[in-house]
Amino acid sequence: MKITSAEFIISNSDVSKCPNEPLPEYAFIGRSNVGKSSLINMLTNHKNLAKTSGKPGKTQLINHFKINLNWFLVDLPGYGYARVSKKTKEVFQQFITDYFEKRQQLVCAFVLIDIRLEAQKIDLEFINYLGETEVPFCIIFTKADKIGKVKAQQNVAAYKKKVMANGWEEMPQHFITSSSEGIGRDELLAFIDQINSE
Ligand code: GTP
Ligand code: MG
């Protein structure tokens, strides 16, 4: 799929104020700093459409980006960032869970995982939460440029084992990406295109 337009529409912390057009949307979620905003920029070929930072905790709201005038990418705040206050964490958690539980337009969530790391409890718990909430999701491994191809495959295989030990019958559909190298872009856009045309 060719990206012909990508436009920021609105940021907010209230799911009822998200755009009310009945267009399919895809949301990016995962630990702070995993590369959610960078991946949105990579997919849309824009350097600064979504704000990124080397410091965790950059994205703090639900951000809607309209793509090709007929679907949305949604950038969300990260979870698991230790340095925000307990109160802020609770507020984030509330609007993120509201988003996943109430947003009718959401067709698929992308759970981002840093390919370098061993499976983290917080991610496995989040994946289970999506399962219980019946939100369709895929896993996206990020920052593949930081390790070699062989190591990447080993880490994905180890992750799969952890996911299955965590109660899943099979590994959810997954993609390997690098925002700095453009790895995985075609596959992800083809996946979205396929759903959009169903
Ligand atoms: P929050 O908004 O804080 O939750 O973070 P985020 O998940 O949106 O991460 P963001 O896209 O802001 O990226 C965090 C840091 O990781 C930045 O310094 C990015 O440049 C870097 N980064 C993101 N993706 C990649 C990647 O594929 N490869 C490399 N090498 N660095 C990346
Ligand atoms: Mg971000």
UniProtKB/TrEMBL annotation:
PROSITE patterns: G_ENGB
InterPro entries referenced in this protein's UniProt entry, alphabetically: G_ENGB_dom, GTP-bd, GTP-bd_ribosome_bio_YsxC, P-loop_NTPase
Function: Necessary for normal cell division and for the maintenance of normal septation.
Listed name of the protein: Probable GTP-binding protein EngB
Family of this protein: Belongs to the TRAFAC class TrmE-Era-EngA-EngB-Septin-like GTPase superfamily. EngB GTPase family.
SUPFAM superfamilies recorded: P-loop containing nucleoside triphosphate hydrolases
Magnesium as UniProt keyword: yes
Cofactor: Mg(2+)
Species whose genome carries this gene: Flavobacterium sediminilitoris
Keywords (A to Z) from UniProt: Cell cycle, Cell division, GTP-binding, Magnesium, Metal-binding, Nucleotide-binding, Septation
Domain spans labelled EngB-type G: 22-198
